[in-house]
Write a structure and sequence with these properties.
Radius of gyration of chain B: 30 Å
Largest sheet of chain A: 2 strands, antiparallel
Structural class of chain B: alpha+beta
Structural class of chain A: mainly alpha
Strand content of chain A: 5-15%
Number of helices of chain B: 18
Oligomer: heterodimer
CATH class of one domain in chain A: Mainly Alpha
Strand order of the largest sheet of chain B: 3-6-7-10-1-11-12-13-14
Distance between the termini of chain A: 38 Å
């Protein structure tokens, strides 16, 4: 059963900024179908007594005290910047989207 | 940008529509370090000097939750009468924008740390309006973009943008109301008063400096209209980043007027975000909410759940400070002001100042006289907040002390205050430097009295004849001659002695 349409793949790809060719959209629609079906089987097995798992480790409350540690030197911060100006990252103009 | 938009006057719009507001308020917590990494947070630092691999989203960098930030979030939840989650988790909110180097914001989605609360908000006339709180959740701030080129630093027309990540990762708590209904024509005022009340609570809890002008507190204003209070909710717009109390009120008014015009023309309201323009007090269309709002939230795999123990929550509840509303009630009773006087004091932002002045030893009435009189006028004419005037409660207390001890009178005190405001020093120093003390030596007074009597012989005769009416003219002349530094009561006594 096909649950993922090509339109959905194209939309999610656009949201994730991934440029896909029409062939790739078709192929991924099929592959995502397989994944969704597999997860549907898990859902069918899971009963209300089985809580959803978002973390495999039985840990909670892992905290850090609010104590400063040295920051990265600015040179290191900007080392990966495609371009920099006045200690800041320089990026192409941002279109009217926020 | 300046395309003419039809607007229906606010009062007119309210005859046909019932406004419903909703507010999302972000507060930057005043922790020493960021939400998920130990970069020190300081306002105004050089760009990109408060950045770690976590704030940059470098591969392999792992976040760890700041315990103090969680504590602050719980305190905020408790102060807003919320339930505190027994367990909650973080989620990734995915979006692409240069201010967000990870390409997702770490936030909370289906499991906020606090939920189901309320806040009673006092309006300017003393009416109490209850605002229901849906949730308060933890998240992190984004970096700061500066758009270069184009006009006025706006996105449109910018040639490039410069990004500073010092702000990226500063802890935020976002507080979301349920739809606020029943406010009617007072909707703008309720919105403003609610955010104001939140600001006061943040400061009282000491979880944030909560300075609006620094963007520590930012509000998104949701507004929709419906035909009657019984109609279903209309389509809403969300005006982003409204950052002053006055603008919050204006943004509500503007959207009521704009949406009413659209609906009157049988149009439909587009569900969208809108930009607030401080300069024109208007909003303009941002992006539609539909697709862009698909943030593909999912649980943050790098952070484990936050499960505050009930003991911790109760400990924090027990340690909550006296909240602003309680404090106002207590001070009102202690000071004995009339209701209207108290409201004026609160609305003028004079509460802390008067409290500190009283604490420094001045009577409540004396403190109010200065802050709500001379100083309120000064603040108004200078267009600044009372608290920003260059005078301290201790100085006002000292000033009133000089009046109480008889060293200066009210008129001289006002001159001394001028000197204090002009930066000439503390009141006592100004009084000495300007020679403002009341003349207590009878010698110079008698000289001035004799001169005045001689200058106005008719009046002197009348007084001698037992007609005390014109004595004021002599006192006035003496006051003038002593540049206001005489004690008028003493002058009167001396005049009467002189002519008898």
């Amino acid at each position: 059963m096909s649950t993922i349409s090509r339109d959905e793949v194209a939309r999610v790809a656009a949201l994730a900024r991934i440029d896909l060719s029409p062939d790739e959209v078709t192929r991924l629609a099929g592959e995502l179908d397989v994944i969704v079906d597999a997860i549907a089987q898990v859902s069918a097995v899971a009963t209300p007594e089985v809580p959803a798992t978002s973390h495999p480790l039985p840990l909670t409350n892992v905290y850090r005290e609010d104590v400063p540690e040295p920051a990265l030197p600015v040179e290191d911060v900007l080392a990966g910047a495609p371009e920099a100006l006045d200690g800041r990252f320089l990026v192409p103009q941002i279109l009217g989207e926020d | 940008m300046s395309a003419a938009v039809d607007l229906v006057p606010f009062e007119e719009a309210l005859k046909r529509y019932d406004p419903v507001i909703g507010l999302e308020v972000h507060v930057e917590l005043g922790t020493r370090t960021k939400m998920f990494c130990p970069a020190e947070v300081e306002f105004g630092g050089e760009p990109n000097t408060q950045v770690t691999p976590v704030s940059l989203g470098l591969p392999g960098a792992l976040p760890v939750v700041n315990r103090t930030a969680v504590e602050s979030a719980i305190k905020i939840g408790l102060a807003l009468n919320c339930q505190i989650a027994e367990s909650c988790r973080f989620a990734r909110k995915n979006y692409f924008y240069p201010d967000n180097p990870k390409n997702f914001q770490t936030s909370q989605y289906d499991e906020p740390i606090a939920f189901d609360g309320w806040l009673d908000v006092e309006l300017e006339d003393g009416e109490i309006f209850r605002v229901e709180i849906e949730r308060a959740h933890m998240e992190e701030d984004a970096g700061k973009n500066t758009h270069v080129g184009g006009t006025g630093g706006r996105i449109q027309g910018a040639e490039y943008s410069l990004v500073d990540y010092n702000r990226a990762g500063i802890p935020l708590v976002e507080i979301v109301t349920r739809p606020i209904t029943g406010a009617g024509e007072r909707a703008p005022e309720v919105a403003r008063a609610y955010v104001h009340a939140l600001r006061d609570i943040f400061r009282t809890l000491d979880v944030s400096e909560a300075r609006m002008e620094r963007g520590n507190v930012r509000a998104d204003v949701n507004l929709s209209l419906r035909a009657t209070p019984d109609s279903p909710l209309g389509t809403r717009t969300e005006t982003k980043n409204v950052n002053s109390f006055r603008s919050i009120e204006r943004a509500v008014r503007y959207e009521v007027s704009r949406q009413a015009a659209v609906l009157d023309a049988s149009g439909t309201i587009v569900q969208e975000t809108r930009h607030w323009h401080e300069d024109t007090s208007s909003t303009s269309s941002g992006r539609p909410k539909s697709d862009a709002e698909d943030y593909r939230y999912f649980p943050e795999p790098d952070l484990v759940p936050v499960a505050p123990s009930r003991d911790w929550v109760e400990e924090l509840r027990a340690a909550l400070p006296e909240l602003p509303a309680e404090r106002r009630r207590r001070l009102h009773a202690e000071w004995g002001y009339a209701d209207a006087e108290m409201r004026d004091v609160v609305n003028a932002g004079a509460l802390d100042l008067i409290e500190a002045t009283v604490a420094a030893g001045t009577s409540a009435a004396g403190a109010r006289k200065w802050w709500m009189g001379e100083l309120a006028r000064k603040a108004k004419s200078d267009e600044v907040e009372l608290a920003d005037l260059p005078v301290t409660p201790a100085q006002i207390s000292e000033l009133q002390g000089l009046v109480d001890s008889g060293r200066i009178n009210d008129k001289l005190a006002r001159q001394a205050l001028e000197g204090v405001l002009a930066g000439e020093g503390d009141p006592t120093a100004v009084v000495q430097a300007r020679g403002l003390e009341v003349v207590s030596d009878d010698g110079p007074l008698l000289e001035a009295i004799d001169a005045a009597l001689a200058a106005q012989p008719d009046i002197a005769d009348k007084i001698r004849g037992g007609n005390l009416g014109p004595v004021g003219a002599i006192i006035g002349a003496v006051m003038k001659a002593t540049r206001g530094q005489a004690d008028a009561g003493r002058v009167r006594e001396l005049v009467l002695e002189r002519v008898s």
